[in-house]
Amino acid sequence: MAAPSFDAVIEVVEQLGSEILLDMKVGESIMVASVEPTARVGDKLRVAMRPSRLHDFDGQTEAAI
Predict the structure, then answer these.
(1) What pLDDT, in 10s, does the model give residues 8-51?
(2) Secondary structure letter of residue 37 according to DSSP
(3) What 3-state DSSP class applies to 51?
């Protein structure tokens, strides 16, 4: 089965050495992803996820769900 995918626009890039964190706009939401250091602010991506690697957080408390 193919991984779920969607379009996203990079809003913030945070360099962390061997990887970067991306704040991406997905519809009206913001999603954060850890990726290899090749993306730049304004890039448009087609993002695919591995459900086993997802972490969900409560929007108000920021506690892990």
Answers:
(1) 898 998 988 788 898 999 888 888 888 877 778 888 888 777 77
(2) T
(3) helix
Closest to 22 in 3D by CA, of 53, 3, 58, 47: 47
| 15-45 exposure pattern, b = at least 16 Cβ within 10 A, e = fewer | eeeeebebebeeeeeebebeeeeeeeeeeeb
CA distance 35 to 56: 17
Taking the mean position of all CA atoms in its chain, how far away is CA 62? 16
18: left (phi over 0), alpha (psi -120 to 50) or beta: alpha
Residue linked to tokens 């913001």: 30
Spell out the residues 6+ positions from residue 11 whose beta carbon is closer than 8 angstroms to its own.
23, 24, 25, 30, 41
